[in-house]
Amino acid sequence: MGRLSGKIALITGAASGIGLACVTRLLAEGASVIATDLSSKAQSESEHFFPLVHDVTSEKNWQDVIRTAIKKFGRIDILVNNAGIGAASPKPISETDLSEWKRVLDVNLDGVFLGLKYGMRAMSNTGGAIVNMGSVHSFVAIPNASAYCASKGAVLLLSKAAALEGAAMTPQIRVNSVHPGYVVTPLVNARMKQMPELEARIEAKTPMGRLAQPEDIASAVLNLVTDEASYVTGSAVMIDGGYTAR
Questions:
Q1: Mean pLDDT across the stretch 8-13?
Q2: Which residues are catalytic?
């Protein structure tokens, strides 16, 4: 039996990158997974896998997704708020359009807020575990990415605030955040195409000398959502190869 046998998990941004790795890892550990993403269903539905098209910035869409998930599986035990974006292109604050700023905050922060709002409601009678996807840039900033840094910094403290509320509930809901360094994902690959020197710069700044693989992050998510982590809440788990250790 897997570590998540019988558990029901909902993962956003699940069509690629870290989200897809989380889907694969949680399924392998026995969970049934509702996998949501903006893109069309990449995989066919099965007994333990249920894909849904989902815009995390839409409150109504969140209500519909939660309702559908509960109708399908009866409850939700695990929520991974993974969906996120970066700005279309790096630029200084003085050149950042308000619409671009709002779009990044809408997905990266409001999407997590809505997930917490409706996820915690869905778990109120059964308890559960929530993991929010932060970033190394929840802690350390970089230039020309103000909206991304602001959104991920906010996810850090939003997660802690939610953890305090979840701990006061009966049954309890645990809320943690994970904070990856640079990971080989479509988002990072797109940025490296724009900036060919970026990969070498990242590797030079990372004590472990490489970018992470999505599976590295999925392993940390798995550890946080198992019952073995029943006393872990309000934590911010760094998975950055030592990037912030200096």
A1: 98
A2: 148
